[in-house]
Structures are given as structure tokens and as C-alpha cells.
Amino acid sequence: MNKIIKLRVKKEVDRANELKVLKLKGTLISKGFTEIIHIEDENDDFYLNTFSTEPEQKKEAENYVLEYISNNNLSDIISLIEMVKK
Hints:
Elements: E1 3-10, H1 15-30, E2 38-41, E3 46-53, H2 58-71, E4 78-81
Antiparallel strand pairs: 1-3, 1-4, 2-3
């Protein structure tokens, strides 16, 4: 069963940071972590970006996202939402 990864993305960002966010999404697809990223409103300030990935790629995908956020100074714009295990 595929694993779900959720990102919280700030809606109001400048053009430079918007391009960094788009690059992250494109790279997640081009690296084969997912085929599609679903976007929905969370509230007035944030979007939820959700994608599924193979179980064996989940940790690698999460690490890639966290490293990308850190390397591009996006911690105030994107955050990885930890899924609660039931």
C-alpha cells in the first residue's frame, strides 16, 4: 500500500520562493517519488499538498523534502506534516 506524505505550503509567497516550491514539486515527480501532487486549501493561509509514494521510498522522499526545505531556506513556507500512526 502506498504511503501518504503531506506538506503544508504557505499561500502568500514572493516569486522567488514560489519558483522554489514549484521546483520541489517537479523534482518529487521527476525523481519518481510520485506521479501527481494533490493540492487543497487548508485555511486562508496554507495549502495542503499531498502525494503518495511507495512504502520503500517514503523515508527517502521525506528526507529529500526536509533537505530541500533546509537548503533553500523555505522553513517558513513549507513544512512536512507528520502522519499519526493508528
